[in-house]
Amino acid sequence: MKEKNLGFNTILNVIKSGLSVLFPLITYPYVLRILGEEGVGRISYCASIISYFSMIAMLGIATYGIREGAKRKTDKKEFRQFVNEVYTINICSTIIAYVLLFCIVCFLPKLHSYSKLLALQSLSIILTTMGLDWVNTIFEDFFLITVRSIFTHLLSFALLFLLVRTPDDYYWYALLTVITNGIVCVSNWFYVRKYVKPQITFHLKLQQHIGPLLLLFSNSIAISIYVNFDTTMLGWMKGDYYVGLYAVAVKIYTIMKSLLAAIYVVTIPRLAFYIGKKKQQEYKKVYTDLWGYLSILLIPSGIGLLCISHEIMILMGGAKYGIATPTLQILSIGLIFAVFGGLITAVLNITIGKEQNNLIATILSAVINCGLNLILIPLFNQNGAAFTTLLSEFFVFGYCFAKIENKSNYLDFSIVLKAVRDALVGSALILLFSFFVKQFIDILFLRMMVIIGGSVILYALSLSVLKNIYFLYVFTIAKKRWDQLLEKIGGKLE
C-alpha cells in the first residue's frame, strides 16, 4: 500500500480546519442580525443539548476506529470484520442516544417548546453514524475530505442567504446545518465502499472493544467539562459582561489551537499503522519530525499572538474589548502548552494505547481548574479564568509527558531540543521587534501588519542563520517548486 504524502495531507487538513473556523466568523454577524439574539439563542441552546447525545452516540468510536483500523488496513478480511463490528456498536449506541434524548424531552417540561427544533437538529446524530468518516481518515484520504468541506461550506454560504431572511427562519437555519452534514454523510456512505462495505454483524467481539471505547468516551466527557467549566464559573460568579470579554479571547485562542492541531491530526493513522506493524524506527522518525516542525511553528505563533493581542482584541470587538488584552496574552502562552500537550495526548497516547493517562490528566486538570477558578475569578475576573486555563494546559502536558515510559523509543531529544532552542531564539527577536514597532507606529491596523510581516521575515532569517533543518528543508522544497513553476511558465511563453 502506497503511503500518502504527510506534508500534502497536512496542508489539506489546515485548509479544512481554516474553513471550519472562517465560515462561522463570516456568517455569524449576518445570522445574528437576521435571527436576533433570541433565534440564535434557541438554536445554540438546542445544539448544546444535542452535542451531549452526539457524544453518547459516537462513544469514542472515531478515535478508536482510526487507531485500531489503521493497524488492520492491509488485511482486507480482518479490516472488514473490524469495521462491521465497530459500525454495529455505533448503531447500538446511536439508538441508545435517541432513546435517552426522547426520554429527556418527554420528562422535562422546559424542553417541550424546543421539541421540533431538537428533533430536526438530532438528525445530525444518525447522519454522522452512517457517514463513517473515520474510515477515510484511516486511509489518509484528506484530499476528498478537504474538497468535500470546501463544497459544503460554499453550498451552506449560498443557501444561508436564500433561506434565512426573517427572524422566523431559525428552523431553516437549523435545517441548513443538517442538510450540509447530510450531503457529507450520504456521499461518504457510497465513497467508503472503495475500502469496505459496512454491514451490521451479530458476531461481535464486544469484550475486546467495549473497554477502550468506554475509556475514550469517559475522556470525551472529562474534556467537555474541563473545556467549558471556566466559562460556566465566570458567568456564575461575575456575570455576562466578563463572559463576553472572555469569549472573544477564547474564540481567537481556539482558532489558533484548531489550526495548529490540524498539523498533527493527519499523522495519527500513519503512526497507528506503524505501531500495528511494529515499525518502531519509522514511528520515531515521523513523531520526532512532527515535534520539530510544530516547535518552529507553535512557539512563534504563541509569542506572536501575545505581541498583537491588543490589536486583535480591538479589531474583533472594538475599543471596549481592549481591557481583555491581558486575557488573550495569558491564553497565548497557554496555546503553546495546549498544542504540545495534544502531541502527547491525541497523538502518542492514543496511538500506543495509553489513553488512560489522558483520562487521569484531564480529570485532575478539571479539579485544579475548578479549585483555582474559585480563588482567582473573584480577584482577577476573566484574567483569572484565563490563568487557570494556562495552568491546566501546562498540567496536562507535564503530567502526560512525565508518564511516557521509555521516551527515547518515540523521540530523538537532541533533534527536538535543537528545534525548540531555535524557535525560542527567533521568538525572542519577535518580542524585541514588536516592542520597537509599538514605539513608533500609532495606527492600529498598520502597526499589526508591520509586526506580522516584519516578524515573519526576521524569524525566517534567524532559522536560516541557525541552520534549522526543518526550515531549510521546507525552504529548499519551496524554492524547487518555484523554480519548476518559472521554468514551466518560461517554456509556455517560448
Tell me what you see in this structure.
With 494 residues, the chain is an all-alpha fold. Helices cover 85% and strands 0% of the residues. The protein has 18 helices and no strands. It has helices at residues 6-58, 61-72, 76-107, 115-121, 123-131, 133-138, 142-163, 170-191, 206-238, 240-265, 268-276, 280-307, 309-317, 325-351, 355-402, 413-440, 444-465, 469-493. Helix 12 (280-307) runs antiparallel to helix 14. The longest helix has 53 residues, at 6-58. It is globular, with a radius of gyration of 24 Å. The two termini are 41 Å apart.
Write the layout of secondary structure elements.
Blueprint: H1 6-58, H2 61-72, H3 76-107, H4 115-121, H5 123-131, H6 133-138, H7 142-163, H8 170-191, H9 206-238, H10 240-265, H11 268-276, H12 280-307, H13 309-317, H14 325-351, H15 355-402, H16 413-440, H17 444-465, H18 469-493
Helix pairs in contact: 1-3, 1-5, 1-7, 1-8, 1-10, 2-3, 2-11, 3-5, 5-8, 7-8, 9-10, 9-15, 10-12, 10-14, 10-15, 11-12, 11-14, 12-14, 12-16, 13-14, 14-15, 16-17
Provide a compact summary of the structure.
The chain is built from 18 helices and no strands. By secondary structure, the protein is mainly α.
Tell me roughly what share of residues is in helical segments.
Answer: over 70%
Q: Sketch the major β-sheet.
A: none
- Gap between N and C termini: 41 Å
Spans where pLDDT lies below 50 across 5 or more residues: none
Strand percentage, roughly?
under 5%
Radius of gyration: 24 Å
pLDDT average, as an integer? 86
